[in-house]
Automatic annotation (TrEMBL):
It comes from the Bacteria. This is Orotidine-5'-phosphate decarboxylase. GO terms for biological process: 'de novo' pyrimidine nucleobase biosynthetic process; 'de novo' UMP biosynthetic process. It catalyses: orotidine 5'-phosphate + H(+) = UMP + CO2. InterPro entries: Aldolase_TIM, OMPdecase_AS, OMPdecase_type-2, OMPdeCOase_dom, RibuloseP-bd_barrel. Keywords: Decarboxylase, Lyase, Pyrimidine biosynthesis. Coiled coil: none annotated. GO terms for molecular function: orotidine-5'-phosphate decarboxylase activity. PROSITE patterns: OMPDECASE. The keyword Lyase applies. Its EC number is 4.1.1.23.
């Protein structure tokens, strides 16, 4: 299979550097006139994909908002992922999995195997049991042409205690994560495309990248940037965080687009406006 980095680059060149979240929060279900149920989140996800097909290259379903409805919610998520595949839209499944050994390997197979009903083009993963614990997911993603996004600098205040902490070597934990990702993308750099190991870096994290001594451009991976729009990140904040790595940013917008629904035209218009803003920013 063609690597995730190559497929993502093609999608971004065609549709822009924006990923639209599929986050069926209870309040959004209410405003869209949908029930707070597995059928409601299924309908929500399918409507988003139908509205954005041919306009957006990447969507990011939030797994937890489907999981809360039990097995029926998981089945709804499977349907949404399949619908996105049929529409030719790349999917990043936001699951934030992180474990060790055989358990991490099972998570990897659940989302990154060709025959899994929950397969996505990429997933989010957590490195805070040690970056090496992520090897089953990183390795399987490489084998199947998929990607992973490693939580590195998130925008929640609680994250600072861990992500900004220094190791015995005097380096920020987040810096070590970024450099581990860069090492796994080295082969892709030689082939002049993005690697399959990306980072999650919040667009509202301000000076944290510099404070932690991180060289985002050296990662040579996609930089998934939540926090655009509803969470308050504007052009100045995005430039401060990503600087010379702006070309690798995949800006994630959820509520900023979704609150325009359920009307399909309004969703498309909101997505188009977001794409225009992001492309102007990174040009």
């Amino acid at each position: 299979m063609v690597s995730y980095g190559v497929r993502l680059d093609e999608a971004q060149r065609r549709y822009g550097h924006v990923c639209v979240g599929i986050d069926p929060h209870p309040g959004l279900l209410d405003s869209w006139g949908l029930p707070r149920s597995a059928e409601g989140v299924r309908a929500f996800g399918l409507r988003v994909i139908d509205a954005l097909e041919g306009h957006i290259g990447v969507v990011k379903p939030q797994s937890a908002l489907f999981e809360e409805y039990g097995s029926a919610g998981i089945a709804a998520l499977e349907d949404v992922l399949a619908h996105a595949r049929d529409a030719g839209i790349l999917t990043i499944l936001d699951v934030k999995r992180g474990d060790i050994g055989s358990t991490m390997a099972a998570y990897a197979r659940a989302y990154l195997c060709d025959d899994s009903p929950l397969r996505a083009d990429a997933i989010t993963i957590s490195p805070y049991l040690g970056f090496g614990s992520l090897a089953p997911a990183i390795d399987l993603a490489a084998q199947t042409g998929r990607g992973v996004y490693v939580l590195t600098l998130t925008s929640n205040l609680e994250a600072v205690t861990l992500q900004h902490a220094t190791t015995a070597a005097g380096r920020a934990v987040a810096r070590d994560i970024a450099e581990e990702a860069a090492a796994r993308n080295a082969d892709a750099r030689e082939k002049h495309h993005l690697g399959h190991v990306g980072l999650v870096v919040g667009a509202t994290t301000g000076s944290a990248v510099n404070a932690c001594g991180i060289d985002l451009a050296a990662v040579n991976g996609s930089l998934l940037a939540p926090g655009l729009g509803a969470q308050g990140a504007g052009p100045a904040q995005v430039r401060e965080v990503f600087a010379d790595a702006l070309a690798n940013v995949l800006a994630s917008s959820s509520r900023g687009v979704l609150r325009a629904g359920p009307d399909a035209t309004s969703l498309r218009d909101a997505a188009k406006q977001t794409v225009e803003e992001v492309e102007d920013l990174i040009a």
